[in-house]
Design brief:
Length: about 100
């Protein structure tokens, strides 16, 4: 499953559901797809996601390299979503995903 995050304040972001759902849960959301955040709820979700991502950065990495392929951390996967939420919060726009 692919999940596309949309807001009028930023370009759409698409990621695999296996990565999107945990990020949604870090935001304090149930992880339901499709769904949305009202503009007034975006700053709180951004704050929760930022705190969760920063906590992951301080933990020892449990991710392993898969053969020759490097594993992309959840912090790196969450970076575009943080940028989208930041833009939406700044402009007072809602965020939806499907």
């Amino acid at each position: 499953m692919l999940v596309t995050f949309t807001t009028e304040a930023y370009a759409d972001i698409t990621m695999f559901g296996d990565h999107a759902v945990p990020l949604l849960k870090m935001m304090g959301h149930s992880g339901t797809v499709p769904s949305a955040l009202r503009a007034e709820d975006v700053p709180a979700a951004l704050n929760q996601l930022t705190i969760a991502i920063n906590a992951l950065k301080t933990e020892p990495s449990a991710e392993k390299k898969l053969g020759d392929e490097p594993v992309v951390s959840m912090a790196n996967r969450g970076f575009p979503l943080i940028k989208l939420l930041t833009a939406a919060a700044k402009e007072g726009k809602h965020v939806s995903w499907k």
